[in-house]
Amino acid sequence: MDEYPAGPASPKPRRPTLSVVIPVNNGGRDFGRCLRRLRDSTRADYELVVVDDGSTDGTAELAESHGALVLRNPSRLGPAAARNAGALAASAPMVFFLDADVAVHPDAIARAMARFEADPGLAGLFGSYDDAPVAPGLVSQFRNLLHHYVHQSGEFDGDARPARTFWTGCGLIRREVFVALGGFDPRRYRRPAIEDIELGYRITAAGHRIVLARDVLATHLKRWTLPEMIRTDVFRRGVPWMLLMKRSRIVETDLNVSRAQRACVAATGLGLLGMLGAARHPWLLASLPASLAAIVALNLDFYRFLARRRGRIFAVASAPLHLVYYCCCGASVAIALAIWHLATRTADEPAPAPNLRLDPAEADAPATPHPTTRRRRSPTR
Length: 381
Description:
CATH topology of one domain: Spore Coat Polysaccharide Biosynthesis Protein SpsA, Chain A
Strand content: 15-25%
Helix content: 40-55%
Oligomer: single chain
Mean pLDDT: 86
Distance between the termini: 19 Å
Low-confidence stretches: 1-11, 358-366, 371-381
């Protein structure tokens, strides 16, 4: 067997220029589609490293059938630890992180790698979801289209713009930078959260550059429910991101926390306060239409985008979900500030040590290769 897989279409063994790392737990059909779309990439000189994070289904066997090097965690350690294990097992100088419920466009890898080949000083790059989510339902469509719109907005130069964060749903990074900065922090982020954003802050603080490339696209396969959306926005993103900004002393003004979005959160809060206070002071109800008008005005381009993609009825039906989203953002700020001011902490928390960690605790067992898996050439298409 070859020491290094050569990618699905490679005519002969050679050391890969790229390692694709996918953490997965009970991936199911979405993971199968992720692997099939990856196999159809126009650039195929990659090795595939899959970290099976405590799955109880046939995830490992499915990954093996696509030529992956499979590492298996005996129990679920979380995506931060899983990605660290995959990056350590990777043999290529470039690591492309991909979520198990994301299907890359055929040219996504080629476009991402081309930017690194043209810019040796670039440390990291991430793309976005496309505007054609496949999961049905209002919540799933709204959520995925919101992500696309946010990541496609802003001032771009040649389809790219500087970013301070990183995104592992579809992101490429130089392995030497990743290892030197200690990888993801599995001790602080044991569950899916903002471990990629936190890494992005460390990368840029160290003087490296990251770009958001809007021409690097992938389809999100995730099916969202309203309770899951609220839980994710508050406890997996909003609260930990706010705490990260407090720890890092960073005032973020990009992507989901742009000045316009902050204004929308404030307007939503004023509208809610007006509704609560109207029982005693009816005149406060006047704040509600004013708040709604401000939110619509600040998001008019977004609602027009939704109307173009899914029709006017969909755009109107999405407005209440957008308000729920802003309520979650406001609640996240309140909860995070309460935690920040009430919790015992040191004035300056130490940054993660500059050595890659496999596990959230030293006693945890590291990911190990699946018993039947060796590095091998990926199957031809």
